[in-house]
FadR family transcriptional regulator (Lichenicola cladoniae), 980 residues
Amino acid sequence: MDHSPAGPPEFVLQPGRRQRLGDQLYGQILEQIVSGRLREGERLPSELRICEMFGVSRPVVRAALSRLRADGLVQARQGAGTFVLHRPADRLTRFAEPGQIAQFLRCVEVRLPLEAAAARLAAERRQEADLVRIEAAQAVCRRELDEGSLRVEADLAFHAAVASASGNEMFTDMLHHIQGVLSGFMRLSLNLTRTGSTARAQAVLQEHAHIQYAIVSGDAEGAETAMRFHIGQARRRMTDRNRDL
Amino acid sequence: MDHSPAGPPEFVLQPGRRQRLGDQLYGQILEQIVSGRLREGERLPSELRICEMFGVSRPVVRAALSRLRADGLVQARQGAGTFVLHRPADRLTRFAEPGQIAQFLRCVEVRLPLEAAAARLAAERRQEADLVRIEAAQAVCRRELDEGSLRVEADLAFHAAVASASGNEMFTDMLHHIQGVLSGFMRLSLNLTRTGSTARAQAVLQEHAHIQYAIVSGDAEGAETAMRFHIGQARRRMTDRNRDL
Amino acid sequence: MDHSPAGPPEFVLQPGRRQRLGDQLYGQILEQIVSGRLREGERLPSELRICEMFGVSRPVVRAALSRLRADGLVQARQGAGTFVLHRPADRLTRFAEPGQIAQFLRCVEVRLPLEAAAARLAAERRQEADLVRIEAAQAVCRRELDEGSLRVEADLAFHAAVASASGNEMFTDMLHHIQGVLSGFMRLSLNLTRTGSTARAQAVLQEHAHIQYAIVSGDAEGAETAMRFHIGQARRRMTDRNRDL
Amino acid sequence: MDHSPAGPPEFVLQPGRRQRLGDQLYGQILEQIVSGRLREGERLPSELRICEMFGVSRPVVRAALSRLRADGLVQARQGAGTFVLHRPADRLTRFAEPGQIAQFLRCVEVRLPLEAAAARLAAERRQEADLVRIEAAQAVCRRELDEGSLRVEADLAFHAAVASASGNEMFTDMLHHIQGVLSGFMRLSLNLTRTGSTARAQAVLQEHAHIQYAIVSGDAEGAETAMRFHIGQARRRMTDRNRDL
């Protein structure tokens, strides 16, 4: 990584290689948790031991563990080590590589503040046309669910309609920019739903309804909370098999 | 800007034309405020009157007024109309077109949640290398300011260093994606500083120091607040000539 | 309620009489909405007209309308007036006076930031004994619901357990200080439930479960969001007959 | 602590004795940091060692360390132990007992969400009379500072004026309820100022001005941020001698 501040700004923002090494380690530990080789409640090897096992430096191990904690998969107990907290559904790795799953969970951290802010502004500024568009998107979600399966396009259209209602096209542009990762996340999520229960799809629809209700009511704080709740639940449905009804 | 060509739902996220019409109207009212034809405390014409003057529909007028309110330039008083609240410095329009200024202020609404979230995560996850990078960026800002002028690259490098310290490269990627608008905002802001007072540049440096202090201390809430404060102040310095020391 | 007699600035914090006049007006408009004399979608009289009808000044009318907006009962549409947005269930006024209802809804605005902050800290600091206490409180809620009715004490005990898990006894003290209003709110809410559907009580229980899950997982942001969602839903169940299943 | 959920609610919310034991330990470690026996950058004894030294159980030690972390005085480095991060000014303990200082810092955690929410609502709802009252309070602060010393009453009156502008008297009531601790905090803070530099008092005044500006401008988000910034800085001025100019 070049930190030269005089450089052309393009360069400054390039993600370094260190992150990717942490990603690899993250993926391998994730795989062990998904496969059940590391069971819920079990203690992970010490940082030092992981360094030796994977031939990486301590900062790399800490970065990987920090991400697993942020994803709610493991938990650090001061002085006692790191323990497996939740185990994703087995079928998760049938549909996605660990590296992709890691990327989807990274994406959640960006979506949370971004879409929450868009939902708040949408409640403050939405015009009649915005409400029509949101209802149209939600109607498609309802119909598809009734017919048996919610498509990525319908889910994405709902989120795009909320972003657009913010009256600031940069929110739409941002969603568009991460659309690849976002679609992947939704596709995986919906695949899990198809092979899982309908209760799961019902939950998605109900969470959308809470967001829509707050925006229609002009309740800025409620809209932000409902969006945060929805995206947070989406993460949990992916990382905790017990939440994955 | 490269938009991933991936999915079919491309059209879903396309910003509509209505926004752009609102932008034009926004720009014209902004110009009248900057030029002083509309003075602080003065009442804007009624919505209906603006519709007639500009030959646009009511929703377009409302969208434009809503943005001016969000930017802190005008204020609605229930039942009494809309009044000019703050007036930007005259020299603002020497350096940028109203359309650009509108875009810079739109950008603030996206930066606020995004960079605030990155700063929070940075305080939670920063590693030694991150702190070194942030201090290096801030040291360049200090030196340039001492030598007479802070460059965009130095300011941008500080924000990039914070985003990188979040440990989630998507924050860096997002900043990179909006780098064009972001640099424009910073350039305008720094141009105002060069022609303005050094107190203004000192304020930028001190706000950076608050962010850095909170990240070093591992104070997540403090880091989020300091970043929100900094970006909010940057907006005020642009929109209020009295803040533009 | 015991107010520390300590300082001389006692008078500084005394609520003024103007608020109480606004309360009266608030109560009268609320009654008209609950009774159905003002129907959903209907426009309220103009500010000026309300001034004349109730013999009060404009600021008093604005304060009352501002509260009705904050409670999600009415909605201002710029330039078009104020409209009834949601109508509480008829039976609401069977169980409480408008003045009490107003007070309960005021209380929500204080509980939201306070209990959300406590839930966040609880996720960060909870010790084993805290988790046991939270689970015990939630178990009582589950059992009482199975047996037909959730009591105020059980609901309150859950919230007290979360506040206590924050590790900062001032949160407990604050809840204790507003316990009178809080119990009133919960009693009214549970009365509505008893005469309403069991779906409503199930929702309360599920919202508690989300809070508990996030605290157990050490998910600070999730805990704050789940608490905000829960308290926000409690307000909606009270103010919108269509939410009051 | 009695967890019986059937009990009279008064009992449920009583803070237990365990907290107070943690307080004592907190105070003793704080004293060692203030006195300089534990220096900045130095490592604290291990949890186990502290258990032995003070004859307390592990949860008590963890509670005390958790508070010291929350106050920004110490920092945990995963796998390496807990280190002193900041050292308060020597003269801090001339003016207050460690137990009081602990209580003041606890109070910050409650004030932050509470006063931030009040400031946000104030920006949304303030009426002319509120703005007059806030300016009057701030004018007194300015004058007193010019004359050499800011009194607790003036500082408190500013915060009371903001709470009152929220239009929800429960915020005022809450501030009134914690007025004893709040005044103590402000008194200590102002005592430090009197024996310290005027730059410190200037900072308080400027932070007030930011809050006032956002409320006058009707900038809800800005008002919340400015209040969070102010209270956060007040904490830092108390816990970090290098911030205590």
Remarks:
- The two ends of chain C are 35 Å apart (CA to CA).
- The longest helix of chain C spans residues 98-125.
